[in-house]
Fold:
Amino acid sequence: MSKVGLFLLLFGILGLFVVVKPQIATFSEKAKETKSLKIEAESYDARLQQIDSIKAQGPAIQETLSRLYFAMPKEAQIPETLVMVESLISSSGASIGSLSIGTPSGTEVPVNVSFSGSLQSINDLLDAFYKNIRTVNVHSQSISSDPSGNVTVSLQAGLVYQGENPYGQLYTKN
Structure:
C-alpha cells in the first residue's frame, strides 16, 4: 500500500503543479483585471456625477450670462446707458457739470463727466455707481471742494460695452 500511497502523493503533487497552480495564476490575473475594471467604472461614475452637477448649474450659468449681457450693452444701447448715468446723478442730489462721450474703441466708450454737490450727495452718487450693474473702468478722477462745502468730481472713464467681437456674439437671449 505504500507504493499506491506514494503514487497518489506524486500524482497529487503533479496535479498541483500542472492543474491547480495555472488555475490560481489565472484566477489571480482575473481578480486584478476585475479590480482594474471596478476602479475604471468608479471613475466613470464620478465623471457622470460631475456632468450631472454641471448640468444642474446650467440655469445659474445662464442667469449669470444674462446679467453679463445686460451689464455690457451693445453699441446701440450706449445712449440709454448714458441716460441712466444722468439719472443716477440727478437722483443723488448732485448736479451735472458736463457729460461727453468719445468714439468707441475696442470694448470701451470713453466718457468724461463732472458733477458737483454736497459731500453726502457725492457719497450717495458714488455708492450708486458702485452698486450699478453696468461696468465702468475709471481711468482718472479728480475731486475738489470749495469753502462752502460744495464738492466737484471729474471722471475720465471707459464704459464697457460688447464692442466688435470677431468671434460673434457670446450670448443670445431667446
